[in-house]
Amino acid sequence: MSDPVQPLLDEHAQLQRELADPAVHADAGKARKLGRRYSELNGIVEAHRRVEQLSEDLEATRELGSMDPELAAEIEPLEAALESAQEALRRKLIPRDPDDGRNVILEIKAGEGGDESALFAGDLLRMYMRYAESLKFKTEVLSSTPTELGGYKDVQLAVKSSSNDPAHGAWARLKYEGGVHRVQRVPATESQGRVHTSAAGVLVFPEVDEPDEIEISQNDLKIDVYRSSGPGGQSVNTTDSAVRITHLPTGIVVAMQNEKSQLQNREAAMRVLRARILAHQQEQIDADNAAVRKSQVRTVDRSERIRTYNYPENRIADHRTGYKSYNLDQVLDGALEPVVNSAIELDEKTRLEQLGQDPAGKRD
C-alpha cells in the first residue's frame, strides 16, 4: 500500500521551490493561494517528521533496552508518544475546507424580541469583535442599522486574519457561528424582573480574495440609490449615498449606507455580494454531494438554533456539540475559543469517521 503522506511531502517541496521564485510574487493572488497551501502542508510535514523521529527512537530503545533497564523503562512512554503523534498526523490528513484560509463577512440580524433582540445583536457584535481581537484578527463594520436604545436591527462585520495558515484563518474559526442564537435574560425595559427569551440570527460568509474570482455581469445587477437613515428611520444624509444592489439570477440583495460616499457604499456592497454568491455556489455544491460529506455542526439551515445564552445562570450552551459552561460573562467579553473548539473537535471527529467509511472522503 502506498504512503498517503508522500504525495503531500512532494507537493510541499514543490511549493517551497515555487515560492522561492520572485516571479510568482508578481501575481499577488497566486502567491497568496500558494502560501496558504504551503502553510497547510507545513503542519503535515512537521507531524510526519515527529512520527518518523519517535519511530526511530522507539526502535533504537527497544534494541538497547534488553541490555539496559533504564532504557527499557523509556519504551512505554515512547510508545504512548508515538501513538499520540500518529493520531495528530491522522487529524492533519483530514481534508480541510478549502475556504478555511479566507477572511469572513459576518452578519448579525435582530430576530424575535423587538428591542431586546436588537440589544442582543449588539452584544453578539461586541463578543465577535473582542474574540477577533484576541486572535489578532482585524475587524471592520461595513454596515449597520442601529436602534434608538443602542442595539442593532442588523450589522455586517468584516473579519480579516493575518495568518497564511488555513487553520488560523477567519473562516476556520468563525464558520460554525451561523444560525439562531437565543438569549434568556431580564430585559432592561422589564419592570417586573421577568426573564424573557429572544433571538438573533448570525450569517457567516467566506470573503472573496480577488474581485475577478466571482464573475458578475453588470447586466445581472439592479442598483438603487437612496438616502441613508438612522435610528427611528430619520434621514441622516441629504444626498442619495445609500446603495442597494440586487443580483437578479440569485435574488440576493445587499444594502449599504454607512459611508457618506455612494462609491464607498457600492464597493462595500459588492464585497458582501461576492461573499454571498460564493456561499450560494458552495451551498449548491454541498447539496449535490453525498450527505456523509456534510459537516454535522455547520449546516446550510440558517434557521437552526445553535446556542443559548442564559444570563440568570451565567450559562452558555451549544446545542450541536453539547458544550456547556457557566462563564457567559467571559464568553460575551470575547472568551469564545472553547466554544469554537467544541465545534471544531466534533467536526473533525465526524470527518475522521467518514474517512474510515467512505473512500470518497479521502483527499484528492
From TrEMBL:
N5-methylglutamine found at: Q234
Protein's cellular compartments: Cytoplasm
The record's account of how the chain is modified after translation: Methylated by PrmC. Methylation increases the termination efficiency of RF1.
Major site of localization recorded for this protein: cytoplasm
SMART domains: PCRF (SM00937)
UniProt keywords, alphabetically: Cytoplasm, Methylation, Protein biosynthesis
Entries under InterPro entries matching the protein: PCRF, Pep_chain_release_fac_I, Pep_chain_release_fac_I_sf, Prokaryotic/Mito_RF, RF-1
PROSITE patterns: RF_PROK_I (PS00745)
The keyword RNA-binding is annotated on this UniProt entry: no
UniProt keyword Cytoplasm, yes or no: yes
Residues of the Prokaryotic-type class I peptide chain release factors domain: 227-243
Signal peptide segment: none
Alphabetical list of PANTHER family matching this protein: LD18447P (PTHR43804:SF7)
Chain's role: Peptide chain release factor 1 directs the termination of translation in response to the peptide chain termination codons UAG and UAA.
Protein family per UniProt: Belongs to the prokaryotic/mitochondrial release factor family.
Protein name listed in UniProt: Peptide chain release factor 1
Protein's gene: prfA
